[in-house]
Amino acid sequence: MANNFNYKEFKDENNYISMAAEVMAVRAVGEVPLACIRTYGCQQNVADSEKIKGMLSKMGFEFTENAEEADFILFNTCAVREHAEDRVFGNVGALKNIKRKKPSVLIGLCGCMMEQKHVTDRLYKSFPFVGLVFGTHSLHRFPELFYHAVTDGKRVYETGVDDKTVYENIPTKRDGTFKGWLPIMYGCNNFCTYCIVPYTRGRERSRKFDDVVSEAREMIRAGYKDITLLGQNVNSYGKNLDEKVTFAQLLAEIDKIEGDYLLRFMTSHPKDCSKELIDVIADSKHISTHLHLPFQSGNNRVLKAMNRSYDREKYLDIIRYAKERIPDVSLTSDVIVGFPGETYEEFLDTVSLVKEVEFTSLFTFIYSPREGTPAAKMPDPYTHEEKTKWFAELLKVQEEIAAKRCASMVDNVYRALAEGKTDKDGILMGRTSGNIIVEFEGDEKLIGQFVNVKITKSRNWILNGVLFEN
């Protein structure tokens, strides 16, 4: 497939970064300008916020969690979550008093929700104190947009501008020191009938192979222990590149990099999940044994109505191969209950698939419409109360499966990355290669390191254990 996308270095905005830094040095209320960034939604939004923080750092900003002391407040929004709009509008409305007390503060919104016209129209009409709005396609222009917002005295709105370009070397300030996100592609071509992402993130565009591998090497050299490759559909990686490469080949190349680290990825689409990919995971040194593969429904008619481009049989074939090649594979998935027109009998096909696969855990959702998607216009004869009952039935089945799986792990030893403290004194929380949480007693100095933990007790989704020395 021909490459329809451009690739550019992030450099044109450096002048705006310098000019914004000069303005903020004078405009800031305190000794240094402070920014408060609130991120909603998926890991891709987190990665985008890390780039925004990188650019702000170049402008001389430091960061605060307290919106009232900030010179710049930014909400990075998500259009996927249920009732996301109501929450964002409510949170933005609460900032009105801050703007009244401190007129110099700049309030902004960005992210997927800003690529929906009905949202930005409402913002413009009802929230005049919001001075900066930009969508997912304008992230690379943030310094320019920010500069004009603080100097021109006018509200700046920049949405719907997709120049089909992948911008490299945007400054990044990562939130973590040992866990990090690494975007490998942007956008989505699947157009599932319930999903707004292709409309807010645009069409698929992959980063160049060497650029991704180089950034992964830099992260490993910097000491990152848990690296997650990100994309709306990572299995589609490489399809728009001139060079013929696959996601499996990218994973295999990164896996060759020497170091003590764990490599994860999300999200995978079953239609593009190849046996080559499963083989790479099975034969790797660093790739997690956790496979998140959303199936959404176990019924073929519903899958077709969702435009998922695979059927139940193909999905189960992938799962069987994964279990054969990776005996300790940990499988998780996304499920939608009550898709428009789904009957109870069709829902039971989902339940039977869950029983057959025996997932480690599920992310389950009752269908809720997204304005602008085909599914939002489909007839939906079943009530929310009925769907809620089905939802509870599915949860009960999955809880039993999860409890059984966790119980089978007792007395075994697993390698886990110690990620932080729990609310119990002296108890740390870690995560296994299979993405299962384990709690154990340990010194805080272990945070950010891999440890061996022997499992002593299981709960539905969480394990308890003790440090194990060979």
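the 2nd protein, sequnce then structure:
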Amino acid sequence: MSTRLDRINQQRQQKLERLRARGINPYPSHYHCRHTAWEAIALLEEKEAGAKKSQKVSIAGRLMAIRRMGKSAFADLRDRSGKIQLLFQDADKFDEKYRELFQNLDIGDIIGVEGNLLRTKSGEPTVHADEFTLLAKSLQPLPEKWHGLSDVDTRYRQRYLDLISNPDTKETFKARSQVITAIRQFLDQRGFIEVETPVLQAAAGGALARPFITHHHSLDQDFYLRIAPELHLKRLIVGGMDRVYELGRIFRNEGISTKHNPEFTMLESYEAYADYNNVMEMLEEMVSHVSQTVLGTTRVKFDKDTLDLKPPWPRLGLREAVEQYSGIDFVKYPTADGLRDRMRPRMKELGLEVDPEKNWMRLVDELLSTFVEPELIKPTFLQDYPVSMSPLAKTKPGEDHLVERFEAFIGGMEIANAFTELNDPAEQRQRFLEQRKERRTESEITETIDEDYLLALEYGMPPAGGLGVGIDRLVMLLTNQPSIREVILFPQLREKT
């Protein structure tokens, strides 16, 4: 038994065959489109203001509504700039080709239209369709509620339907593009050079994360999809490229949540002769600049809060922040077992268990993510982390148990991580070895040591400040989106069976 969708598809297929039988190509290769909907409306307003320019326009886009009225019809056409109304008047006066085409148009078809501009009695800007061309026949109907497709799973799996149906979605991704452009402009003006580093890497390094592994058949060698571009970018600092950055995809074989996707976009930058204080100042200036450039303001609405991104942002010590919000001074519990025992009653209050397999640094990170991060709504820097949590960061002078590292939080989520880079090759090797020893119990983590990076350090790397910014989360913040899936065009989803 056929369904309603089957019948609609069959009807559209029949229309396609009728058009072909009449010699009408339903998928032509080109159309000369001279105006957008927005430009056409602007021309009409100029005409109404007394301009004597020609008011004939040529536009193209998707039919989003058709209102047939006997031999005539009004239709809504949407292109990249917006929507405009079309008037197909008195089909009996069309020649045979246009009459056949008019009778076989459907919502969802992509057409090109030429005609003069007018405003209807209701005040609607309209193109009188003197000539029109089918550019792509739509064989599938748009969702029933094309004017507001709300099924989340459909929106993510079939992003093209989301973009067709929800103009706000398109605006979000326009804003994302503008954010990336503004970041590039900011860094370029400060003398940074944009570079590209390998996505396939022989050693998984630059961050603590489980990598994706693939095999190169010609070389008969396993490679890792990069979990960070850090070690390659710092090789460039060794080579004398004193200010570099990369905007690119990162891959981490870990959990999926409203803040995490297995592949995401990261900005990483490195500046020779700078430290984490310089990087803090640069980050708050950059985020403020991007917001001002894209939104026209540094005040943004995120969830229920209005946040001002204007510098300076407050700075808190990690130890003090964890104690303030959790009541636990982790420095007083230097072993994993001791800290775990101290955490249990606090976690139990929240209905949570403490993972018996986590080492000390991961327990500290759990305290941070559970108790501190949700409280950091206004832009805030947390600084000075334990050495064991930051194997690539330089020790803080006079405090050997701490490193010069900060994380930036806005809206209750981390948006950036940075530190003064460790450039002592002997100490870096020792940190790598200690890190591997510490994490041997975490069998799911692949741990490698990048020997070529250590060799590069032996040639001498100047003092440097490094920065990593989660672009997806920054876009979430600036577009007031609650989930990372709203700002990634094609988020990772479980395969639908």
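The CA atoms of residues 71 and 91 lie 5 Å apart. The radius of gyration is 29 Å.
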